[in-house]
Amino acid sequence: MDKSSRSCRLTIRFGPSERTVEASVGETLLDVLRREGFFVEAPCGGRGLCGGCRLRVSGDLSPADEGERALLGSRSAEIRLACRARLAGEATVTLGVPGGGGTVPFDGEARKTVQETVFVPLSFDWDELAPSASVLEGIGSMLARAGHAVEAGNLDGAASLGDGLRPGWRTSLLAVLRGGVLAGFLPHREGARPLGAVCDIGTTTLVAYLVDLERGRVLAALRGRNPQALYGGDVLSRIARGLADAASLRALTDSVRAEAGRLLVALADGEGLDVGHCVDVLLVGNAVMHHLFLGLSPVTLGRLPFAPLLRRTPPLRAGDVALPLAPWARVRFLPLLGRFVGSDMTGLLVRAAALPPKRRLLVDVGTNGEIALVVGERIVVGSTAAGPAFEGGNVSSGMVALPGAVDGALWRDDDIALSVIGGGTVEGLCGPGLIDVVALLVRKGAVDGSGRIADGEAIPFPRLARRVESLEGRRRIRLGSAEQGTLVLTQQDIRQLQLAKGALQAAMEELLDREGLTWNDVDECLLAGAFGGALRPESLLALGLFPEAMRGRIASVGNGAGEGALTVLLGGPEAWDEAQALADRAESVDLEGRGTFQDRFIEALRLESRGGA
Fold this sequence. Notes:
GO molecular function, one term: iron-sulfur cluster binding
Largest sheet: 7 strands, mixed
Helix content: 25-40%
CATH superfamily of the largest domain: Domain of unknown function (DUF4445)
CATH architecture of the largest domain: 2-Layer Sandwich
Number of strands: 27
CATH topology of the largest domain: Nucleotidyltransferase, domain 5
Structural class: alpha/beta
InterPro entries: 2Fe-2S_ferredoxin-like_sf, 2Fe-2S_ferredoxin-type, Beta-grasp_dom_sf, Corrinoid_activation_enz, Raco-like_middle, Raco-like_middle_sf, RACo_C
Shape: globular
Strand content: 25-35%
Pfam families: Fer2, RACo_C_ter, Raco_middle
Organism: Aminithiophilus ramosus
Distance between the termini: 59 Å
Number of helices: 14
Protein name: DUF4445 domain-containing protein
């Protein structure tokens, strides 16, 4: 901040918290927020061209200029572009519009459960421990009398007694037993049950589930943006940042751990539960997210042969990774599969293992697209850097699947109509909505096979034709209505989708070709992703991601990686061992390094339905 300029205060609201910072009059909101360490996505680099840095604001700001009003329409009084709005005095900004986080649909039915963790309430006087050689041995004897034979010589157990044990006072505690081992102690609370959590750490999105370990039920689920996106939208930019210096690696690690912790606290608070009762956490993520969460240098992922430092991670404690739980709470990662294929694909393999045997293609659609081909006992996996467009990233009006996100498009009265989560005002496009919108525009001739937006005069539907605009010589399409609110789809947005689609299509076809198969040989393709909302096969076929030969053989399974991780979390040691065995069977291959990948990628940039196999 320029000390010679007139200063003012900016209040920054994020979730239930707020912070007031000093700034200079004339500074853009984008500059202030980034200086203070807050994540603001600006796909166009802060040039005011895309509308991706929209924020809810109030207070003394510079008036919106013509370009900003064109992007925001009637909402420019309360929603501003962070890169264009300059401070004129005191102001307040609310982060999270669009897409900081939100609830996630989940199946709350009871699941098959092997209860590995139990809470045992204990109440005793100090004198009752006197005959024992140590306090833990005395507590172990009490547990044995209550029918729980345990190993009591556990350092974590001793450390977690803390101030709960006071000589001369009656003590009430919860002893936490895991697989016959005394894991630790918690303050006594009537009716407390052991909780667990699954967290899917994606390059763009984090999804966390809170689980009742006793009843085998998911209680709640939340989604958040990965704050590492401040340092780059894909895994390659994160690797580069992580290798820059020790401080950059620490910043990447601290930010994603903090977001995971925030989600866990928010989940527990939302259910009126104590987050300290969450004693077992299972994590999944690609290899880069795995390394950065653990604070490991991604150096071996940034150069040939692109191998992770380790595939299997020993069980950790929450205190080791700064999660706001009991320091001794167990934290585990499902095993990586090699190269850039991570434990999220391991979770998806667990999910698919419960299905009838088929020649099956599994695709985890995201910023890092991961693919597995399962034929009998053989599992071959690979990945591709698809970029964040599938999750709403690097898109001018992109956001995650929250209320206000466009999640689909319909053809109504010779015009495009939008489906909006929550049915309210349009705020942005989530991944499935972007795919649906572009697919419909392709089918109706508003976007050609090269991805180019057509001139309005060439579109045979007058209402749709009137939506085509031009700004600084660049065509764009205005979506929505006066009642619903509007947003724009730019030529660059479509290019981002083409890049993501091209990379994923080329990688799938390389994997099939390597195994001597064609699309006709695939019985089923399961699509998974933590981006929220189901991908519609009809739209994927219209864009040419899959050939017509796959019609009727494509299914979306939502966050399949998270579902598989839930199976492991609730399944006890046997489910954990089965996940390890699946990982050991998987052969990891380099798809992007094959000689034909680039040619396939260029061909796959076209947006049009296709035959063939």
